[in-house]
Amino acid sequence: MTTPSPKLPYVVLLPSPTGEPPTGGDSLHQDLNLYYESGNIAWLITATALVLLMIPGVGFFYSGLARRKSALSLLWLSIMGTAVVSFQWFFWGFSLAFSHTAGKFIGDLSNLGLMNALGAPSVASPLIPDLLFAVYQGMFAAITYVLDI
Fold first, then answer.
1. Verdict on whether the full-model pTM lies above 0.85
2. Which ranges constitute the DSSP H helices of 12-129?
């Protein structure tokens, strides 16, 4: 008589497969979340949301330093700066900074427009997917520009 194996109180993660396509696999036919812990993903989403909240906060801070008639313009400037930087980051910036086939100093355009950046492990850590890392770093690119205005 065999005893049933006890249920584990945690999820056993599988190592990321090496023979998968650059996207990490087909998200329609397989579960790409098997390779990542939900705690890491939740924390990165929380950190991304906190940085996103900083952008209008900086706009309100700049508005408080200016005259009353310029307050709305400065708030609008921080939001529009975020829109422009986000477009540039997701179109070519992420690829130049964090592509998987990068050179020593600058990447190539293999991820132009976030092409092939879905569920594969990111360059920074194998614990988070590439797409989530792109959004996280994009928020920092946006807040950097807003702080420089």
1. no
2. 38-65, 71-88, 94-98
